[in-house]
Design goal:
Low-confidence stretches: 181-187
CATH topology of the largest domain: 60s Ribosomal Protein L30, Chain: A
CATH class of the largest domain: Alpha Beta
Mean pLDDT: 88
Number of strands: 9
Order of helices and strands: HHEHEEEHHEEEEEH
Number of domains: 2
CATH architecture of the largest domain: 2-Layer Sandwich
Number of helices: 6
Length: about 190
């Protein structure tokens, strides 16, 4: 599975190794295998490399509606079973993954490999705080109708649309300060 995670992510790195170990620890504690549908839910608290390993190992994806991002910048991963709501929170212990504030991208290839090896071999209890938690599980994936934004003309999921001056608008047109930064060049 490590090779599959590396292939999916594009390269081996310390962040991928942390996510891999976190997902493995969560699955093991819950006594569940990879999710085929939506029976497992993963909630990640970062948008870093480790989330790719979580997707590969757990089968939780944004597309299936069982992967949720709470971007709090924390190396914390929560996994829960829909059948009974049993959840496990896997948090990287401060300092266990390497020196706090270290910049792994500035490390030599040998140093990066050593850090990856360390993260893949360190005992789970030294790397993570793993504990059972009660989880308010989000509703399963839902499909909503698409409506057309009166400003940009693009389709938007109905519950994400807003009314602005009596017209349906997408979130980007409703609040341009919250919109993604796009640079479209006219020909």
């Amino acid at each position: 599975m490590w090779e599959k995670a590396v292939e999916f992510h594009g390269h081996a790195c310390p962040g991928l190794a942390m996510g891999f170990r976190a997902a493995w620890a969560g699955l093991e504690r819950l006594g569940i295998d990879r999710s085929r549908d939506e029976e497992l839910v993963a909630m990640v608290e970062n948008e870093a490399c480790g989330v790719d390993a979580v997707q590969v190992l757990t089968g939780c994806t944004f597309g299936k509606g069982n992967l949720y991002l709470r971007d709090w910048g924390k190396q914390v991963f929560t996994f829960a079973r829909r059948c009974d709501g049993r959840g496990v929170r896997v948090a990287v212990k401060y300092g266990a993954a390497g020196p706090a504030g270290s910049r792994p991208r500035q490390a030599s290839p040998e140093e990066r490999e050593a850090r990856i090896r360390h993260l893949r071999e360190i005992p789970v209890e030294e790397l993570f705080d793993v504990r059972e938690v009660e989880v308010a599980l989000p509703q399963g994936a839902r499909v909503f109708p698409t409506v057309q934004c009166s400003a940009c003309g693009e389709g938007v999921m109905e519950p994400r649309a807003a009314l602005k001056d009596g017209q349906v608008v997408c979130p980007a047109c409703n609040d341009p300060y919250q919109a993604p930064v796009l640079s479209l060049m006219a020909e």
